[in-house]
């Protein structure tokens, strides 16, 4: 019984058996935003027209649009954040490598050329 619990915990929650919601970045938030968008779109359309079937269709479309929009927005922000983190890490590596040398970018004062004969 303990083995089954451990297996369920490592497997994670799967949506329709395809998407591992717990381990996929942005999946949980996108699904929750989509659920809210579908309720809002369907309910507003129903209040405006009183057509049940069409309200369901509009709600489903609202779910798809809101989920995909939220998914792509979150993924783009994550990608931008990873690029910024990579640039900062490279900058820190360069600072550590060049610290105390003539190529130290933080040194103030006169510029020291690497090639004195190039002047």
UniProtKB/TrEMBL annotation:
The chain crosses the membrane at residues 30-48, 55-73. Coiled coil: none annotated. The keyword Magnesium does not apply. InterPro entries: Cox20. The keyword Membrane applies. Belongs to the COX20 family. This is Cytochrome c oxidase assembly protein COX20, mitochondrial.
